[in-house]
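Researcher: Sequence recovery benchmark, item below. Answer with residues only.
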């Protein structure tokens, strides 16, 4: 009996090969043939699952988002149960910050996507903005929950603070990749700002 092919597993295998290229060599010159070589499959197989390079790029971005989401969930769990708005926001942002090999790789890969869009603005799509936008909304929701619980100043704009925290985290990540500071120093800066946002005691 012929072996059943797991098409999603094959798609993911190819997508992960693209992400490895992104984290080490960038995406500007990553061809489908190069991805096929990295995945150790034929070019025809890559083209079977992904008809265009843009389709492959968006699939890879989706897999990267899944990897980051799992890291965030694990970090929040590690901060203790039940989760609080403070632990959720802190766990989310510290999971993004490049402080170990996995987070360095994730940050480098996202940076490769940003660089591709900067070099080729036409590649910017609503789908590519979906994850950062949803992350901002998620953080803002947690801050509003903190306001309701009395742990965040009710006078601040949750949407503005959420956007600022995510921008701060991304900027710190870039400074780590660029060698301006190391992971622990970036984490100390982020923690300082989080501690000043969550300064109020609960009701």
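Model:
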């Amino acid at each position: 009996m012929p072996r059943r092919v797991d098409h999603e597993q094959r798609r993911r295998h190819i997508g992960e090969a693209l992400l490895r290229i992104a984290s080490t060599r960038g995406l500007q010159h990553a061809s489908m043939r190069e991805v096929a070589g990295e995945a150790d499959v034929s070019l025809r197989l890559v083209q079977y699952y992904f008809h265009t390079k843009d389709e492959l790029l968006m699939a890879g971005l989706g897999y990267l988002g899944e990897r980051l989401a799992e890291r965030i969930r694990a970090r929040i769990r590690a901060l203790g149960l039940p989760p609080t708005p403070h632990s959720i926001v802190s766990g989310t942002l510290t999971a993004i910050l490049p402080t170990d090999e996995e987070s360095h790789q994730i940050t480098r890969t996202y940076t490769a996507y940003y660089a591709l869009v900067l070099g080729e603005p036409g590649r910017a799509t609503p789908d590519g903005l979906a994850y950062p936008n949803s992350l901002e909304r998620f953080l803002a929701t947690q801050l509003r929950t903190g306001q309701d619980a009395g742990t965040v100043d009710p006078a601040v704009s949750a949407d503005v603070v959420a956007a600022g925290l995510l921008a701060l985290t991304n900027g710190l990540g870039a400074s780590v990749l660029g060698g301006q500071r190391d992971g622990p120093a970036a984490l100390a800066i982020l923690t300082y700002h989080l501690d000043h946002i969550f300064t109020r005691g609960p009701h």
